Amino acid sequence: MNIHKFYSAVLTPFRKKRMARFMKTLSPKKSDKILDIGGTAFNWALIDYKHPITLLNLDVPGNASELPENYTCVAGDGTALEYEDKSYEIVFSNSVIEHVGTYEKQKAFAKEASRVGKKLWIQTPAKYFFFEPHYLMAFVHWFPKNCQKRMLRFSGRALLSKFPQEEIDDLVDYTRLLTFAECKKLFPSCSVHKERILFLTKSYIIENS
Known about the structure:
By secondary structure, the chain is an alpha/beta fold. The chain has two domains: 3-134 and 176-208, 3-Layer(aba) Sandwich (Rossmann fold), CATH 3.40.50; 135-174, no CATH class. The chain has seven helices and nine strands. The chain has helices at 3-26, 42-46, 103-116, 145-151, 156-160, 165-174, 180-186; strands at 34-37, 53-57, 71-75, 88-94, 117-125, 131-132, 137-138, 191-197, 200-208. A seven-stranded mixed β-sheet has the order 3-2-1-4-5-9-8. The chain has a two-stranded antiparallel ribbon with strand order 6-7. Helix 2 links the parallel strand 1 and strand 2 (53-57).
């Protein structure tokens, strides 16, 4: 199975529930400007959202011209946003802050999202959940990075797709999962909701409404 098809099949039930919570908690209006940092149309399609969304990524995706007209795709860096203070009603981001590299970069991401958005909705996997969703492997993320790079050759992700060592190294070097305490520290004006599975905290949703 293609890795992207696998993620789509597995994540859809969780994402639908998460997006339903987003709609209930933040109740976006048709006129609200929403900035999705590092996002795609996938999450929004789950709730059939038809209003304007700006999708910001390091590069404009190749399929940008094929997306419905309510999407605007722009190139930009979530750690250095080129927008005025509070220029968006909502800044949204799903599973992105853990990929910016260092804790200092995560602080910059949090500061920029908080500066630009009047309201925030930031989701990120929990460091102490036993299963690492990017690697499709249990416990590996608790080992030193050099061990992770060797272990990932035998991960579920490696079995589902071509996963060359260079890609493994980049993924390990730029993935840093957050703890609950770190989420609170990065976003002191927000509440942090714990998403759970089997009574274990799977991920965090950082929100203010």
